[in-house]
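Researcher: Let's do a round of design. I'm pasting the C-alpha cells now; please hold your answer until I've finished.
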C-alpha cells in the first residue's frame, strides 16, 4: 500500500466485506477512532442478497413491457431477429435478481456468488489438467463461454458493492480499500475471490471516470488489503485482539449462519490469533431452518384451503420461492416478537395466504436442531483424556444467533457470569460481526501505514516533534509484515508416486494449521512419506509408519502446523512430532 498516487493514506476508507453463502454485508470505517457503520443496499436494507443474474432478453421475458412493443413491430415470418443488433448484457443483483429467477422458475443456487466463484475455480483447474483437441474443441468453447458468463456476473456484483460503498462513504471508489473474509473450512477459492473483487473495483473506478494520466497508477494499486478468516474477524469486532496482554486466551467462536454452524477454538497471545481447532456442521444450516418454516407455513395454508392436496404447494416452484422469502422475513421478526403474521398474495392458484407463525410452535420445530447443537457445543469443549478446555470467552455470531431459543441455549451452556460473552448485540449485531471485524482490521492497517508516514515526516509542521498522537497508540498492535511458509508440505501415500495430498502451500501466512482426514486403504506398507516441496526439488523429511493400509476405507486424521519460527509439527490421531529445522 506504499504507492497510492495522489491519494494519501489519511484519505483512504477501510471497507469490510462479508460475502456469505446467502447475503453480503458491508461495513466502512472512515478512521481508526470512529465506530464502523453499515452500508445499506439500494432499498435501505442492511444486507444485499449475494445473487447475480443476467437480465432476461426481451424476446424471452413476457413480463417485460418492451416484449409486447417489439413483437408488434415484427411479423411471424420476419427473420430480423437474427440480424438484430446484439444488446449489451445487463446484470441484476440482490432482490431484483431473485425476482427475475422466480419469474423464469429457475433455482437460485447456481447464481449465488460463492457458488459461481467455486465453479470458476474448478473449471480453471480442469482446463489446466485436460488437453483437448479435435472434436472436443467445440465443447471447450462452450465451457469457456459459461466461464465468461459466470465471471462477468461476479465482476458485476462486486462492482455493484463498490458503488454502494462509494455512495455511502461519499468518496470516490479510488479511495476504498477492502478487507475480505473467508471461512476457515474452505479457503481454496480465496485467491480467486481476491482477483475477481479487485477487477470489480477497477470496473467501478472506470465507470466513475479518471484522468488518462492516472491509468497506469490506478491499475497498479492494490485494492484488497487482506483476507482474514471468519473467526478472526469476529474476534476483531468484539475487541478481543485490541489489548496487549502477555497471557494466553482461549476463545470459542460459534458462527451459526446460512450455510452451516461452525465452532472455532482461537488461541490469542499478545494480540495475535491462531486457529487451534475448527469444526463445522452443514446439517444445522440456516437454510435448513428456513426450510422448516417454509414447510410449516405451507401446511397452515393447506389446512385453511382443504381443496388443495397435502404437499401440492411445496411442489410448485413459484409458490415455494414466495414461501422462502416470507420465511426469511418471519425468522427476522421472531427474534423480537412472539407471533408473526405471514401475508402472501396469490400464493397458489390465485389464493392468498394469511398464516400466523407462533414463537412457541417454531421453538418446538427447532427442538432437534437445538438438541444436536447442544451436543456439539459440549463435545467441542472436551479434548484428549476427557479434559475440559477452559475458555476465557465464548462469542456467538451469525443470523441464527438472533433467535430467542438459540440465545437461551447459549446462556444455559455458557452463562455470562462464567464466560466473557463479548459485546452486546446492540453494539455488534451477530449477523454483521464478520463485516464489522474486517472494517476494524482494515482501519487499523491503514492507520498503521499512516503512522509510518508520521515517522518519516517528523519535520512536518502539524507534528513537528515527531510524536505519535495518543489516539493512534493502540494501532501498534497490527503487524506490518507477516511471515510466509518458505515451501510446500505434502504427503506421498505410495512410494514413487507423485505427491497425492498437499497439506500446506508455499507462501501460506504463518502460523499455518491444517487438519485433513486421509484415506490410507491403498497406502504403501512402508508408510506415508512427508515431503518438503520447493521450486527446485522435493525432499522427504519424515515418514508416518505403523499404518495398516489393508482395511477398506480406513481413514486417519493428520494435522500439520508450521509456526512463525518455521518449526513444523505433524500429528496423527493426536500424536505429535516436531521438525525444528525446516529450512535445511
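Researcher: That's everything. Go ahead.
Model: Designed sequence:
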Amino acid at each position: 500500500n506504499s504507492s497510492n498516487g495522489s491519494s494519501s493514506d489519511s484519505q483512504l476508507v477501510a471497507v469490510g466485506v462479508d460475502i456469505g453463502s446467502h447475503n453480503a454485508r458491508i461495513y466502512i470505517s472512515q478512521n481508526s477512532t470512529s465506530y464502523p457503520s453499515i452500508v445499506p443496499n439500494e432499498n435501505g436494507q442492511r444486507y444485499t442478497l449475494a445473487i447475480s443474474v443476467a437480465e432476461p432478453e426481451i424476446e424471452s421475458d413476457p413480463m417485460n413491457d418492451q416484449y409486447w412493443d417489439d413483437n408488434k413491430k415484427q411479423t411471424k415470418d420476419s427473420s430480423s431477429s437474427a440480424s438484430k443488433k446484439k444488446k449489451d448484457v445487463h446484470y441484476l443483483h440482490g432482490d431484483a435478481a431473485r425476482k427475475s429467477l422466480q419469474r423464469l422458475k429457475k433455482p437460485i443456487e447456481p447464481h449465488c456468488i460463492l457458488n459461481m466463484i467455486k465453479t470458476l475455480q474448478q473449471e480453471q483447474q480442469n482446463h489446466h489438467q485436460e488437453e483437448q483437441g479435435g472434436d472436443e474443441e467445440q465443447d471447450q468453447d462452450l465451457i469457456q463461454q459459461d466461464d465468461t458468463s459466470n465471471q462477468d456476473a461476479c465482476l458485476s456484483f462486486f462492482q455493484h458493492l463498490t458503488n454502494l460503498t462509494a455512495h455511502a462513504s461519499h468518496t470516490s471508489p479510488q479511495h476504498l480499500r477492502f478487507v475480505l473474509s473467508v471461512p476457515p473450512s474452505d479457503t481454496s477459492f480465496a485467491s480467486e475471490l481476491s482477483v475477481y473483487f479487485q477487477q470489480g473495483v477497477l470496473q467501478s473506478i472506470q465507470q466513475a471516470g479518471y484522468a488518462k494520466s492516472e491509468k497506469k497508477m490506478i491499475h497498479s494499486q492494490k485494492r484488497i488489503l487482506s483476507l482474514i478468516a471468519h473467526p478472526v474477524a469476529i474476534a476483531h469486532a468484539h475487541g478481543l485482539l485490541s489489548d496487549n496482554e502477555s497471557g494466553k486466551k482461549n476463545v470459542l467462536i460459534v458462527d451459526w449462519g446460512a450455510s452451516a454452524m461452525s465452532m472455532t477454538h482461537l488461541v490469542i497471545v499478545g494480540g495475535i490469533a491462531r486457529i487451534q481447532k475448527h469444526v463445522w456442521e452443514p446439517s444445522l444450516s440456516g437454510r435448513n431452518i428456513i426450510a422448516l418454516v417454509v414447510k410449516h407455513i405451507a401446511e397452515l395454508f393447506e389446512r385453511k384451503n382443504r381443496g388443495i392436496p397435502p404437499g401440492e404447494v411445496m411442489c410448485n416452484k413459484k409458490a415455494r420461492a414466495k414461501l422462502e422469502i416470507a420465511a426469511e422475513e418471519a425468522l427476522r421478526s421472531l427474534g423480537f416478537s412472539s407471533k408473526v403474521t405471514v401475508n402472501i398474495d396469490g400464493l397458489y392458484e390465485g389464493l392468498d395466504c394469511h398464516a400466523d407463525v407462533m414463537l412457541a410452535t417454531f421453538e418446538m420445530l427447532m427442538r432437534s436442531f437445538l438438541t444436536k447443537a447442544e451436543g456439539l457445543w459440549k463435545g467441542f469443549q472436551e479434548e484428549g483424556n476427557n479434559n475440559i478446555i477452559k475458555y476465557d470467552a465464548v462469542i456467538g455470531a451469525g443470523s441464527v444467533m438472533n433467535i430467542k431459543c438459540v440465545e437461551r441455549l447459549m446462556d444455559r451452556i455458557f452463562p455470562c457470569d462464567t464466560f466473557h460473552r463479548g459485546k452486546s448485540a446492540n453494539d455488534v449485531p451477530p449477523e454483521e460481526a464478520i463485516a464489522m471485524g474486517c472494517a476494524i482490521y482494515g482501519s487499523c492497517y491503514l492507520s498503521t501505514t499512516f503512522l509510518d508516514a508520521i515517522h518519516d515526516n517528523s519535520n512536518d509542521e502539524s507534528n513537528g516533534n515527531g510524536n505519535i498522537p495518543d489516539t493512534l497508540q493502540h494501532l501498534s498492535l497490527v503487524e506490518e509484515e507477516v511471515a510466509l511458509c518458505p515451501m510446500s508440505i505434502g504427503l506421498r501415500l505410495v512410494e514413487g508416486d507423485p505427491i497425492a495430498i498437499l497439506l500446506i502451500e508455499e507462501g501460506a501466512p504463518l502460523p499455518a494449521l491444517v487438519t485433513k482426514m486421509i484415506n490410507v486403504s491403498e497406502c504403501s506398507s512402508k508408510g506415508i512419506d512427508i515431503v518438503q516441496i520447493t521450486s527446485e526439488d522435493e525432499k522427504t523429511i519424515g515418514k508416518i509408519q505403523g499404518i495398516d493400509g489393508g482395511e477398506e476405507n480406513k481413514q486417519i486424521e493428520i494435522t500439520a502446523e508450521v509456526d512463525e519460527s518455521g518449526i513444523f509439527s505433524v500429528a496423527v490421531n493426536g500424536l505429535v512430532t516436531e521438525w525444528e529445522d525446516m529450512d535445511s
